[in-house]
Amino acid sequence: MARNPKQTASEADGVSYRRARTWEIALSQMNNGSAMIFYTLVGLMSYVQNAGYGIAVAAAGIVLTVTRVFDGLIDPVLALIIERVTFPFGKLRFFMLGGWLIRSLAILMLFVWAPDTGLGAVFFIAIYLVYIVGSSMNDIAGQMTGPVLTNDPRQRPTVQVWSTVYAYFVPAIFSIVSTVVFLPRHGNRFTVEMLSETAITFVACSLVFQILACIGVTRIDKPENFAHLTDARAKADVSMRDMWNLLTKNGPFQRYLISGASDKLAQVVKSQAVIATLMWGILLGNMQLGSVLGLIAILPGIVFAIFGARYTGKYGSKAATVTWTWICLVLAVVLTVFCLSVDMGSILASLPLTIAFFLVYLLLNGASMVVTVASGTMRADVIDYELDRTGKYLPATVTATYNIVDQIISSLGATLALGAVALIGFTTAMPQPTDSPTTPILVMSLVLFFGLPILGWACTLVAMRGYKLTRTEMIDVQKRVAERKGSLASTELADVAV
């Protein structure tokens, strides 16, 4: 018997979805790869501050933290500019390349052209602020590519998979290049020459990623793909009022923010070096284990991301988020009970305990990857819902508003981690891997490493209870948007005929 061909999402849902080719998705998300290269360079920024501009180590950290406030302020301004500007060829490539050019020139100035010239902290801060402007411009435009490329619910999660692949592999590869290739050539010292050579190479590589990303969005980077659902004769400029309206009246976006913010705070705190020292160095007795396990977890994590994309495409972002958040929460509780039930110092000395710990930890990492994929799809759903709700297409505004919260949370992460460590006695000296494990260290480590994520996942589950953009509702949203676009097109044709 001949097999019946599988229905496409458009056929199954009765909606003519906009779809992208796989290679377009893969190339477009290379913008994230380019951003990750600069992210790796920013990780070396404190060395540039100290070696090239004479800024003290303590002051260097303060400078990088305070400038995050500027980052949060500039995002909404840039978002409004991006929303309001339209070129005959679109806008994505202009702002992606423009942002790349600004951030590249700033990096070359800071790492290559200006060190050891006598210019001090004021010059460094000024150029770093210029870098932030370029970075925000590029990132907002890059994050807009997914919602514009496709609104097919089965395909949208694939965008997040490719973005995640670049987010994991690119910084890992370029960090290795920095420490294995460039550092030994300069006597294993972070000298100005070493940093300069690294920056030139990284910027050149980022240009390749950026060009490929622009190729990936060429077909869809057209003015009609950014149009509002308003009469062409009506003025539909985007303003701060629209951003405020988004924050105060878009219920799904509010719940998406709560979910993302709670998870982000837990992630940022958990990733702090001082928490890694407590968990891997003091309690488990192997400081390098955390880094090794992080690299090992990449491949199974990508496998989970691919599975998560299919799951999200079939059941919707809300169902995927709720199901896999529950799985994350249960696995984290299991790990917490496991660590409280055994002597953590003996885990690596016992093969059964080691296997049990690693297996559950890798499963937890994989499950959280599915939540990440669903979260990326959820943002695209919120953008389309806002178009249906207000008639305005605001991908940059949604992205920038979320980024503001992300910046605030990220800046709080280090403060929360250091404050928690101070509570258990580390007020004048930082924890070292050679310190002896104590009960306060055990309790605080588990609270920060597993307890805070559990709290974040619980907040997500509460927020999702009132989140109404289910798989079925999003089909209805796309139908209403398509009907309104068709009606507007008919009206415009009638006007032309008259």
From TrEMBL:
Transmembrane segment boundaries: 53-82, 94-114, 120-140, 161-183, 198-218, 289-307, 319-338, 408-429, 441-464
InterPro entries per UniProt: MFS_trans_sf
Tree of life domain: Bacteria
Cited SUPFAM superfamilies: MFS general substrate transporter
UniProt KW keywords: Membrane, Transmembrane, Transmembrane helix
Keyword Repressor: no
Pfam families linked to this entry: MFS_2 (PF13347)
The keyword Endoplasmic reticulum belongs to this UniProt entry's keyword annotation: no
Protein known as: Sugar transporter
Classification lineage: Bacteria, Bacillati, Actinomycetota, Actinomycetes, Micrococcales
